[in-house]
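Thread: "does anyone have the structure for this chain?"

Original post by V.I.:
We have the sequence but no experimental structure in hand. Need at least a predicted one for the grant figures.
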Amino acid sequence: MEAPAARHSRAETELTVGSPGQMGELGRRLAKLLRAGDLVMLSGELGAGKTTLTRGLGEGLGVRGAVTSPTFVIARVHPSLGGGPPLVHVDAYRLGGGLDEMEDLDLDVSLPESVIVVEWGEGKVEELTDDRLMVQIHRAVGDTTDEVRHVTLAGLGERWAGVDLGVLSA
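Reply from O.Q.:
Generated one for you, tokens below.
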């Protein structure tokens, strides 16, 4: 059944990122737009920069602990050092499909007070909320020396309807 049109409100912007340093800076700028209850879904090829972006988010949110890929532990919680929301960083790459398999992570319980970032989450965590930020990172395939990434950010739902994602290109 199709959700009401208001549930599909979109805010969208596209950016070009020229280096890992710039990807981290994008994460730091994006962190200023995030608040507790936000779900950020990252997609892109292996090596596209998803964890680098999340590292920048962690720095921008002021969380404890080094943000590294949680591929083998599935999820890491980084508590805030300054009273802000904790960052829950999930790598769903090795998980099958659907929210049922992710229930042990208690993402639905963590979401209201945390910023949850899920790498490889498409088809797995959308049921958590109608409001989410989708981040697609595209890189040149086959050319490992090209550090240029094309990033598309699309905010879905009422939460993102009034957010100007264009400020991230400043």
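V.I.: this helps a lot. The first helix runs from residue 20 to 31.
O.Q.: and Residues 67 and 162 are 29 Å apart (CA to CA).
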